[in-house]
Amino acid sequence: MILPNDLEDLLELDLFLDIQIGLGLFFPKFSLNQIKGVNYYLCCGYETIKSINMISQRIEAQLNEQVKSEAFSSQLYLAMASWAETQGFEGVAAFMYKHSEEERAHMLKLIKFVNERGGHAIVPALEAPTSKFDSLLPLFEELLSHEMEITNKINELVHATLEEKDYTTHNFLQWYVSEQIEEEALARTILDKLRLIGDDKGSGLYMFDRDITGITAKSANDATEGTV
Ligand SMILES: [Fe+2]
Ligand SMILES: [Fe+2]
């Protein structure tokens, strides 16, 4: 709620200046103090609506944790892309560079949401990700286990929004729930193909690297959209 001392500050904002000018035009006989009084009550109403829709400190903290997780995902996949590039796996490198960008987009989406809801998104410090892998199989095994960890974190966050009765954040997070289903399904499809290649490290891996950007996974989301 706005305190009277904050009124002068608020009047400096364009929005409230516009309201004040509008009041002055429609009610030219009002004194300046009367106009300021009406404006004050409008400001109080605005702040009340804003505070009702604000995220709680608990949800803000957990969303900021998720910002960190998505940022780390982006760095991890960037490290995987760089390693693959040095090993001559151009297709895998392109796939991982793109995946890294997508994780950055997931992080940005969270940052924007936290700030729009009256919180403060914090850009976190990150640990260095693994930079060397024995081969493509352990690389994609690590990717799948990382995505499963992220899925757990999203689920915990969704659970917290229900406990806090924060249905706006709950609704916002459904996009992440669907995204995790797709990402896990894709990682499992890729791992299946790598296990099929088995010991055929020559032409098998060559073709895998050539075709990876075209690999897609049918997930439960596709079934609900009628595309299976
Ligand atoms: Fe993500
Ligand atoms: Fe992901």
Task: Explain what the structure shows.
This protein has two domains: 4-52, no CATH class; 57-221, Ferritin, core subunit, four-helix bundle (Ferritin). The longest helix has 31 residues, at 167-197. 75% of the residues lie in helices and 0% in strands. It contains nine helices and no strands.
Spell out the key features of this protein.
binds fe (ii) ion, single chain, 2 domains, Ferritin, 228 residues
Question: What order do the helices and strands come in, and which of them pair?
Answer:
Layout: H1 7-11, H2 14-26, H3 32-52, H4 57-86, H5 90-116, H6 136-163, H7 167-197, H8 203-211, H9 220-225
Helix pairs in contact: 2-3, 4-5, 4-6, 6-7
One fe (ii) ion binds at residues 73, 103, 147, 150, 183.
Instruction: Using the CA coordinates, give the radius of gyration.
Output: 25 Å
* End-to-end distance: 52 Å
Q: What is the name of the CATH class of the largest domain?
A: Mainly Alpha
The CATH topology of the largest domain comes to Ferritin
Helices and strands: which structural class? mainly alpha
- CATH level-two architecture of the largest domain: Up-down Bundle
- Number of strand segments: 0
Q: What compounds are bound to the protein?
A: fe (ii) ion
Profile the largest sheet: none
**Series of secondary-structure elements, N-terminal to C-terminal:** HHHHHHHHH
